[in-house]
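Hello support,

Our group uses your service weekly, and this is the first time we've seen a run hang past the timeout. The protein is Ribosomal protein S12 methylthiotransferase accessory factor. I'm not sure whether the cause is the sequence or the server load. Input pasted verbatim:
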Amino acid sequence: MEMKISFPGGVAVQAEYKGFTVLSDQPESNGGRNQAPSPFDLFLASIGQCAGFFALRFCQQRQIATDGLHLTLKTERDPERKRLEKIAITIHLPDGFPDKYRQAIIKATDQCAVKRAILDPPAFEVVTE
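Update from on-call engineer: The timeout came from a worker crash unrelated to the input. Re-ran successfully.
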């Protein structure tokens, strides 16, 4: 897997991968134009979207209606250490969701590959060419 990272102007950063282009920018307070989410915002969105995919597929595979199904992701930061302290995901179940599946949908959502990559992080290597 290879992804190309380039710089289209200002402090924006662009990633090209599998025919898709993902743009990030910084808020004006960081020298950006606030024209796209920051890289950290995209990171958080990837966690929420990944968890959401597993919740959605859980319902679809059991023919459970998904109208009203959604997730919210809330974060807590440690202001002293300036780092992410906690990520809380709430699965908002659709009306009529079977009680017998409440724990199972949580377990399914926990299969998110992005979350697993954080819990068991890869090695990082940075080189120059």
